Amino acid sequence: MIGTNPNLIADSSATFGDFPYHLAIFRVSPYVLKVDFGSTSPSLKRLDKMASRLYIKGRILGHKRGKRNSRPNQSLLQIEGVDNKEAARHYLGKRVAYVYKAKREINGSRVRVIWGRISRSHGNSGAVKSKFRTNLPAKTFGASCRIMLFPSNI
C-alpha cells in the first residue's frame, strides 16, 4: 500500500491525473491481482473471466501503387502505436484479419473474414505491406483490421 490516505495516489499525482484512487493490476498467472489503493485488501480474478483483446488494431491505407499502376494484390496497413521501421519489424509474418459483416447469413453468421499476412515494412513511418488471400476491395480503404499476435517466435 502507498499509504492510509485514500486520496494519496503517488508522489506525483500528475502522472495518474486528479483521481482520488489509483488502480493497479498485476498478472499472477493464471490470476490477476487487482489492487485498489483506496481499499484495504486486494482482489484476485481469473484471467479467463476478464475481457482481453488478443490483437493489435490497424488501419487499411490502400493498395500498393505507383503514379499510374496499382497493385491490388498488395495492401498497405498502418498499425496502431507503430511509427518507425524498427517497430514495424516485430510484426513481420504476423496474420492480419479484415472482419466485416455481410448482408446474407451463411452457417448462422453474417460475419466474414479475409485473412492475410504481413510481408515487409513500407517506408519509414511504420506502415507495412501485406498480402491477403483474396484482394481487398476498394471500399475497405480506411477501415480497421486486426493484427494477430501469432505466429510468434518469442
UniProtKB/TrEMBL annotation:
The entry lists its GO molecular-function terms as: structural constituent of ribosome
| Top-rank taxon, per record | Eukaryota
> What InterPro entries does the annotation carry?
Ribosomal_eL33, Ribosomal_eL33_sf, Transl_B-barrel_sf
Could you name the Gene Ontology cellular component terms for this entry? ribonucleoprotein complex; ribosome
Q: Which UniProt keywords apply?
A: Ribonucleoprotein, Ribosomal protein
* Record-linked SUPFAM superfamilies: Translation proteins
**Which family does the similarity line name?**
Belongs to the eukaryotic ribosomal protein eL33 family.
Q: Which PANTHER family match?
A: 60S RIBOSOMAL PROTEIN L35A (PTHR10902)
Q: Which HAMAP family match?
A: Ribosomal_eL33 (MF_00573)
- Name under which the protein is recorded: 60s ribosomal protein l33-b, putative
- What species was this sequence derived from? Cryptococcus gattii serotype B (strain WM276 / ATCC MYA-4071) (Filobasidiella gattii)
Lineage of producing organism? Eukaryota, Fungi, Dikarya, Basidiomycota, Agaricomycotina
